Input
Amino acid sequence: MRYKANDHHPHLSAAVLQATAEAGANIALTKYWGNANDDLRIPANESISITLDRTRTVTTVAFHPDLTEDEVVVDEVRLSGPARERVVQHLNLLRERAGVSWRARVVSRNNFPASAGIASSASGFAALTLAGAAALGLDLSPCDLSRLARRGSGSAARSIFGGFVLLHTGARDEEAFAEPLHPPDWWEICDLVAIVSRTEKGVSSGEGHRLAPTSALHRARVARVAELNQRILDALARRDFAALGEAAEEDALLMHAVMMTSRPSLLYWLPETVMLMHRVHAWRREGVPAYFTIDAGPNVHILTLPEYADHLRTDLLALPGVQEVILCRPGPEARVIPNPE
Output
């Protein structure tokens, strides 16, 4: 499949180039943490993720000839400073490819807490890349889109695709892109996103990636991830949930060990985070298949099988400090919305 603006939306005229796209956040089973190249956001290691169906970002990009600067609004808040500049730099990549100089108005909204460790930058930059490319009429393959999305947020490369996804690393920009492993209906794994904080984290993932090499554990974790990736690939092929969950939980702890031993140290966990980790271990002792994974934030993803999901969600909502639980399953690829309201 290729994406070209004129094939997907009717909102082109001499006065505006506009498109809207939707993308899902993803939960990494093995994490992207640390860069081989900070400027290009080439990851230090390969990673495997599930694109989620219920945590979505919808973004409209409209290029206007009369705008004097780019305007960026996320969840009804107009961005400024470094957050806006990051989006502007990404728009520049798209404008350079299209040979267009017009400034853009970007309006994006999430249906889940942003900048709280639930991969809002992944869904956000995937949707921005797809909408911007469609608006400018760029004829790009999904692989091209994945590489472009990675320049905005490394994990956004994975959110271009649906289902189960592998992000490659490499020595050059052309080698670092994601590819789909299995479609969403390959395996109905459930991800219970337990939200214990909606507060924007104090240290961004981007800064955390730059700090990763300051940890004495970083190289050891990168070496270990190669083996964990193979275990997860095998587990996906066999639909072996215990093998997948064990590998995912191990890598989450390894990543946070790197964070905690970076200079300066990063500690994203809250007391409620640790409480949920203990609760997952207790469930397993009771015979319930459940494993946790945690991105760069305090909120916890609990992986389980469909027949246990409703029961675990009820238990989670009864725990002190759990504000909300979003029940997710593997979701679709990013898409252009032809006729957005």
Remarks:
- Residues 1-13 have pLDDT under 50 and may be disordered.
- The CA atoms of residues 21 and 131 lie 5 Å apart.
- The chain has two domains: 5-186, 190-328.
